[in-house]
Amino acid sequence: MTPSPRRTGRIARGGTFLAAASAVGLVLTGCSGGSVSGNSGGSGDSTEILVWTHYTGDAGKTVETIADDYNESQSEYSVRIQYGGTGDQFTPKLLNAVKNDQGPNLVLGDGTPQKLSQVVETGKVLPLEDLLSSPDSEISADNFTEGMLSTGTIDGTIYSLPSDGGDYGLIYNKAMFEEAGIDEPPATWDEVAEDATTLTKDGKYGIYLPIGTGEWPVFTWQSMLWGAGGDFLNEDNTEVAFNSPEGVEALTVWTDLVKNGQAYPQSLATGSDNQGMAAFSTGKVAMIITGAYNLGLLADGVGEENVGVAPFPTLKEPAMNIGTDNSYLLDGTDEQEAGAWDFLQYTLSPEVQAEWDIATGYLPTNKETTETDAYQAYLEENPEIEVFVKQLEYAKARPSILAYDEISSALATEIEKAMLGRVTPQEALEAAAQNGQKALD
């Protein structure tokens, strides 16, 4: 769809990707003002639209620029950006604000969409089907892949839209590969094991695998599970399904790499570095799994010329898990709801989203964004980013259900035990499934 004449951004570009991306992490404080149920009126006769975000640093400045451009492009609404917190802080603060009628009109880029069900339960989140299907809307459900759209779909109803995309790939040290006589990165996990054997020597290891009790190991391991042909939950999200032969196979691939000495997941495994960033940057490991947003930091460590990017290795079939920041509208006056929807459409329009993604390092969620001249030029200048973009075509999403956090926590705990050799993969998955099913029940 073509945006209306006023829907063009003037966001300053953030230079090359490797410079811009270091400011952003997918998984990427303070509350005041705003009213969910009233308080229309902004500057002059315009209606103020209060928008909460989790963006900081360069991304925070860029979203302010977007809002300024939007406010200058029309006079009906006045958007005000407010930092609402990040990570685990965001949802509790939002829930408290909403329950006290002090929440925003729009949440832009919630970094924990898997917790959306908790906000939907308040009854304050607006369903989006009618807006998306309206002939007056400039975006529709067709603008997003099925996997992307599923991140904000609960019980068959679309409540939020993915505004920032992200996934992960296999990042490798080109210099270490060349020194080991390896001409190209591995495409399968069998090849990962083969290359890791060659690369593991002199106190250095082939690959760093996700480990820890947070979301990251579960987020990445789900791609292993899907790549083996398994499922995380059953079709209606009522039963745990990862404790299957496919699940055992998927986890065994990782535990075997550790057992055989080809991987070193314990190295520097902290809550702030469970992706192996320090180990890669200091040359202790040749391969890690991480997202495009970390390429700049890795380049600072080993040199931009030594940072290689390859698709997430295949087990039986290509698989990828989507990480998104999602946006949604909250109950307010008719004017506030209309303004929040208008601004959300503005941010998701291909031209504006392309400039946002170029400036921040996020990946497009609107399928048309990739085809804009600006983003095509960006990919030509930064071909490594295309690896991440192409994986979005077949990527799936974590289930947006209330029990997800408990299931993920149980699974992360058991995956860590298996990676450290304390239990077998089958024992780990059976224990995680038992606790996960309790959460579902």
Notes on the protein architecture:
- The protein is of the alpha/beta class and 441 residues long.
- It has two domains: 17-166 and 322-391, Periplasmic binding protein-like II (D-Maltodextrin-Binding Protein, domain 2, 3-Layer(aba) Sandwich); 169-321 and 403-440, 3-Layer(aba) Sandwich (D-Maltodextrin-Binding Protein, domain 2), CATH 3.40.190.
- It is 41% helix and 12% strand.
- It has helices at 17-20, 57-73, 90-99, 116-120, 129-133, 146-150, 174-179, 189-199, 215-227, 245-259, 277-281, 295-302, 334-348, 350-360, 373-381, 384-391, 404-419, 425-440, and strands at 47-53, 77-83, 106-110, 153-154, 157-158, 161-166, 169-173, 205-207, 285-290, 307-310, 323-329.
- The chain has a five-stranded mixed β-sheet with strand order 2-1-3-11-6. The chain has a four-stranded mixed β-sheet with strand order 8-9-7-10. Strands 4-5 form a two-stranded antiparallel sheet.
- Strand 4 (153-154) and strand 5 (157-158) form a beta hairpin.
- Helix 9 packs across helix 10 (245-259), helix 9 (215-227) packs across helix 17 and helix 17 (404-419) packs antiparallel against helix 18.
- The longest helix has 17 residues, at 57-73.
- The protein is globular and about 70 Å long.
- The chain starts with 16 loop residues before the first helix and ends with a helix.
- Mean pLDDT is 88; it is low at 1-42.
Compose a concise summary of this entry.
By secondary structure, this protein is of the alpha/beta class.
